[in-house]
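Q: How do we represent a protein-ligand complex in a form that can be generated token by token?
A: Start from the inputs.
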Amino acid sequence: MNKFLILNSLFLLSQTSNPESKFLNLKKQLEKFGFEVVIELPPKRGAYGLLREADKKIWINPVVFELHIGTQTIIHEAVHAAQVCAGKGKIKVLGLNIKPSNYARPFFRRYTDVRRQDLEREAYAVQTQPNSYELAVSLLQKHCK
Ligand SMILES: [Zn+2]
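Then emit the structure tokens for the protein with zinc ion bound:
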């Protein structure tokens, strides 16, 4: 599916207050805070999403829409964006008082770098909360204004 078709179908879905409208709203928020969001294969093989700190660019792998994890994926990257804002361009842990669900454990455990593991643990913690979308929006607004 090409980029235009994906965006177009997301737009149509957003008209019916589908979960995908959350994806679009979060994308808009990220862009407002100076992040560039592209729906393309990330430069890191196998990644669903990726944020490059240097130029605040976020990749969302188009496959996430087929897997119905588009919103989850952008929520995850939005947490990393808030981490970048909090560190004034240099990514740092926000220090949230929430824990990721157990099923998310293998996902951040595979990062061998301890610092990276902390950043990922936090992103997965937000992503697995029942109010993950609202939480991600509030973190962006708090740290990126
Ligand atoms: Zn991550």
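The pocket of zinc ion is lined by residues 76, 80, 120, 123 (CB under 6 Å). The chain has a mean pLDDT of 89.
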